[in-house]
From TrEMBL:
The active site is at 360 (for fru-6p isomerization activity). It comes from Limnoglobus roseus. The keyword Nucleus does not apply. This is Glutamine--fructose-6-phosphate aminotransferase [isomerizing]. One of its GO terms (molecular function) is carbohydrate derivative binding. It is an enzyme of class 2 (transferase). Residues 43-182, 214-355 form the SIS domain. Catalyzes the first step in hexosamine metabolism, converting fructose-6P into glucosamine-6P using glutamine as a nitrogen source. Homodimer. GO terms for cellular component: cytosol. Keywords: Aminotransferase, Cytoplasm, Glutamine amidotransferase, Repeat, Transferase. It catalyses: D-fructose 6-phosphate + L-glutamine = D-glucosamine 6-phosphate + L-glutamate.
Length: 365
């Protein structure tokens, strides 16, 4: 049921303040300043011994895994590798016995993710699933896991699953961090910041009118670039994927500084670059990448902090998002990119909820 929304995708985009709150419900623990999960099923010994994490997934869930890599490194100081499930399943990578596998999947039925998880289990690694669909094959076969509780995702383009997966990965990083080096004060700060997140998402949705205007200006373009750094590099990939799959526009996501190693040759007045440039550690670096694009006469659409005058001196168009700590920026900045892909697809007359050639869950390899 779409309610008052014209498409499932738009409804699901607007559900995100609630779905992210649902992912956190009952899992934040003030007394120990950590997160708790009912079903990880790791013994205390396994937990202590973990010294490496391999995340495996496809598509949007893979992009959430890339966000997880930054989160685990920063908050838990755990080395992480993120692997496309379709690649991992046919490789034979040397894996330390103390590695755990984390399969990330909305549907819990993606054939390659299932096969990758089985392969990891066969090699003797504990496998956790971060999954939305309750009782799905991957949820059942995993040794333990965390449900998203996001409710059914019907639009083929994944939206609310991505923000919930990123939220669960943040809580897992907090949990592992607290068993290692994070102090209770640091843990409590993260809990407080997580609690403020649904409200920040609600505010981010307030950019919808800005996004509609921008969609109108650029809907005819046939090539887009999406650029971000650090935590926002995976969001650049995800923004490009959203645009490709529902509007059939060629789009590429890149780490912003990698541009000058080739892709900048694509920049011209008809190729907009969507920059993820909220305030944070790499702000100045991203600003100078933005100037490089402007110097080649490429239009710049900036997703940035409210009232950012410095960005305004370079960007042609701005979409503002509320300020959140850097490790939560992927969740907040994903919202305008989902809306941008949606509005452009609608303007181009595309079937938003059922894009051509795509199925909601890919159960063949
Ligand atoms: C993109 C999209 C796909 C899925 C991918 C994995 O919008 O929906 O890329 O993310 O097929 O699906 P799950 O998460 O169900 O394993």
């Amino acid at each position: 049921d779409k309610g008052d929304y014209p498409h499932h995708m738009l409804k699901e985009i607007y559900e995100q303040p609630e779905t992210v709150a649902n992912a956190m419900r009952g899992r934040l623990d003030d007394s120990d300043s950590t997160a708790h999960f009912g079903g990880l099923n790791l013994t205390a010994k396994q937990l202590r011994n973990i010294d490496r994490v391999v995340m495996t997934a496809c598509g949007t869930s893979y992009h959430a895994g890339l966000v997880g890599e930054y989160l685990f490194e920063e908050l838990a100081r755990l080395p992480v590798e993120v692997e496309y499930a379709s690649e991992f399943r046919y490789r034979n990578p040397p894996m330390d016995p103390r590695t755990i596998l984390v399969a990330i999947t909305q549907s819990g039925e993606t054939a390659d993710t299932l096969a990758a998880m089985r392969e990891g289990k066969r090699m003797g690694h504990p496998a956790l699933a971060i999954c939305n669909a309750v009782g799905s094959t991957i949820a059942r076969e995993a040794d333990g896991g965390v449900y998203l509780h996001a409710g059914p995702e019907i639009g083929v383009a994944s939206t609310k699953a991505f923000t919930s997966q990123s939220t669960v990965l943040t809580m897992l990083a907090l949990y592992f961090g607290r068993t290692r080096h994070l102090s209770s004060l640091q843990g409590q700060r993260i809990i407080d910041e997580l609690r403020a997140l649904p409200d920040a998402i609600r505010k981010a949705l307030g950019c919808h009118e800005q996004v509609k205007k921008i969609a109108n200006r650029y809907a005819e373009c046939n090539n887009f670039l999406y650029l971000g750094r650090q935590y926002l590099y995976p969001v650049a990939l995800e923004g490009a994927l959203k645009l490709k799959e529902i509007s059939y526009i060629h789009a590429e996501g890149y780490p912003a500084a990698e541009m000058k190693h080739g892709p900048i040759a694509l920049v011209d007045p008809h190729t907009p670059s969507v920059f993820l440039v909220p305030r944070g550690n790499v702000f100045d670096k991203v600003m100078s990448n933005m100037q490089e694009i402007k110097a080649r006469r490429g239009p710049v659409i900036a997703v940035c902090s409210e009232g950012d005058r410095e960005v305004a001196t370079v960007a042609d168009d701005m979409i503002t998002v509320p300020d959140v700590p850097e490790y939560l920026q992927p969740i907040v900045t994903a919202i305008p990119l989902q809306l941008l892909a949606y509005e452009i697809a609608v303007l181009r007359g595309c079937d938003v909820d059922k894009p051509r050639n795509l199925a909601k869950s890919v159960t063949v390899e």
